[in-house]
Structure formats: C-alpha cells, structure tokens
Write a structure and sequence with these properties.
de novo design (two linked rop proteins); single chain; about 180 residues; mainly alpha
Length: about 180
C-alpha cells in the first residue's frame, strides 16, 4: 500500500476515535443532567409528601382559611402532574408561593405557631426547600456544562448528527423575578 493510503486510513481512524470519545462524553454529561433533574424530583416528592401532613395539622386551627389550604393542595397536585422541566419549574414555584402564604397566615394563629407538629413540619419543609434550591442549582450547572459541550466546536459539528440537543434550565418565573416590596 502507498504511504498516502496509510495516512488517509490514519486520519479516518483518528476521526472515528474522536467521534467515539465525543459521543461517550456527551452520553456521560446527558446522564448527569438526567440524574440532576431526578434529584430535584426526589426533593419535590419529599415536599409533596410532607404537605398533606402540614395541611391536616393546620386545618384544625384555620377553619376560616380554607382558600389558602385549597391553593396549597391545588399547587401540590400541579407539581405532581407536571411532566416537562418548564412545567415542573412553574408548578414548583407556584407551590413555594402558596406555602409562603400558608406560613404567613399561620402567624395569626398563636396556638398553631406553638404546635410542635406544625413547627416540625414547617422546619422539614423549609429544609426541603433549601435542598430543592441546591438541586436546582446543581441541575442548572450540569445543563450549562452539557450545553457548552454540545455548542462548542468541534463538538457542535457532530452533536446534532449523534442526536444530542441542548437541555432546558430550571428557571424562575416572571413573578419570582419581580422586586419584593416590603411595607411596614
């Protein structure tokens, strides 16, 4: 065989090895993105499991606050039925807002605020909210790494052909981006 044929075979072999390496890196990153999203789901499920206990604890004290309790229940159901990243983010943010209103209304019930069960559930939900925030941040970090890999050259030349598309970040809603107004 001629030297030119060996050079061409070497270049083809090198390109094939580079594409295989790129494919494997993108698979690893995509799996990390999926795992990060699954961690958000774990925390959302934990919060969703705690909410019925919180609602039942509060019901006895807040007979006149039925609308707040109904909103919490509806928001919880929306989180559980959401399928896409965007819908799950939107529903989760709505649930966070309704929980804030529930805790704000609870301020008007001194017996409820002193109830050990309520305090424990409130603490668990607050801790879970922190875990959700961390899981969202980690997910968005993984999405950024994955999307950067998919978008940069020479990866972008092969990523589309190999079936890799950009992932969607977990974003705040327009309502959450507004400035908070504090009135005294």
């Amino acid at each position: 065989m001629a030297l030119g044929t060996w050079i061409i075979l070497g270049i083809v072999a090198l390109v094939i090895l580079l594409v295989i390496g790129l494919f494997n890196r993108l698979i690893r990153l995509r799996n990390q993105v999926k795992n990060s999203f699954a961690q958000i789901d774990v925390q959302l499920k934990r919060r969703n499991d705690l909410i019925p206990n919180l609602v039942e604890t509060v019901k006895g004290y807040m007979k006149h606050e039925r609308e707040v309790l109904e909103n919490v229940t509806k928001a919880r159901a929306a989180v559980m039925s959401a399928k896409s990243v965007g819908k799950k983010a939107e529903a989760s943010n709505q649930l966070t807002d309704t929980l804030k209103s529930l805790f704000a209304v609870s301020e008007g019930y001194p017996d409820l605020k002193a109830n050990q069960n309520f305090l424990q559930l409130q603490e668990e939900i607050t801790g879970t909210e922190n875990k959700i925030a961390y899981a969202r941040q980690h997910y968005n970090d993984m999405v950024m790494v994955f999307n950067t890999k998919v978008q940069t050259f020479p990866n972008n030349a092969f990523a589309g052909m190999l079936g890799f598309k950009e992932e969607q970040s977990f974003e705040a809603t327009a309502e959450e981006r507004k400035n908070v107004k504090v009135k005294f």
